[in-house]
Amino acid sequence: MKNILIVLVLISTIFFFCATSQQINFYNYANQEIPNYINRDNTPANNQMNDTIANLGRVLFYDKNLSINNTISCASCHKQAFAFGDQSVLSQGVSKELTGRHVMRLVNIRFAQAVTLFWDERAATLEDQTTEPIKDHIEMGFSGINGAPTFEDLINKLECIDYYRTLFSVAFGDYQITESRIQLALAQFIRSIQSFDSKYDVGRAQVTNDEMPFPNFTEQENEGKRLFMMPKDKNGANCQPCHRAPIFDIDPGTSNNGIIGVAGDPKAVDLMNTRSPSLRDLVNPNGTLNGPLMHDGSLTSLAAVIDHYNQIPLDPRNSTRLNSRLRTSDLKSGQNLQLTQAEKDALIAFLKTLTGAAIYTDARWSSPFDRNGELIFNK
Ligand code: HEC
Ligand code: HEC
Question: In whole numbers, what is the pLDDT of the chain averaged over residues?
Answer without folding.
Answer: 94
